[in-house]
Predict the structure.
Amino acid sequence: MSFGAWYGRVVFPRLMEWALNSDVCSAERRRALAGARGEVLEIGFGTGLNLAHYPSGPAGPAGPAGVTALTIIDSADLLPARVADRIAAAPFPVTRAQLDAERLPFADATFDSVVSTWTLCSIPDPVAALREIRRVLRPDGAFLFLEHGLSDRPEVARWQHRWNPIQRWVACGCNVNRPIDRMIADGGLVVRDLTRFVLPGEISMMAEMYRGTAARP
């Protein structure tokens, strides 16, 4: 196994889990996922840290109270034993597939919600993935996102552009300078609400957050 393959399979998943499993990140996950309902697709499952934060509950007269089924996709298979334990503990059925987000094998209008957390930064063609998300989302569905990306502060954005080539190598393809809201619009979705903030306790270049929801036009 080459150093790059070993780093991407063994070292980086543990670094990512450590960085994204803080109390602050967990609180943001809960906020981002609060509106998930019905049949949900999660893009970029990673090590399964979202599973503990999905609302769940049976369907009622007004529709699903929470997640009733979850489909998860990721192009990588990270920390498989740990992920298997988290899936086994989920209160709803979970279907897993190793797929690229740019080409989804699902019919149009399949899902009530689609979720992306800290994922659009690393997809090779994020706009293609967002067009696929739009396609598989039901007309009354919601795309829920929590991402880091390009700062609206020019001094921070300049450093993000300078640092990004190193970031891509260190973090296995992650980009710190993607304009998440513009990419969502380019993917054919309409941003319904957006909160921009800096994640506390983190370096500004890495901590420029986008949290919100989008929908089909």
The chain has a mean pLDDT of 92. The radius of gyration is 17 Å. The chain has six helices and nine strands. The CA atoms of residues 24 and 170 lie 23 Å apart.
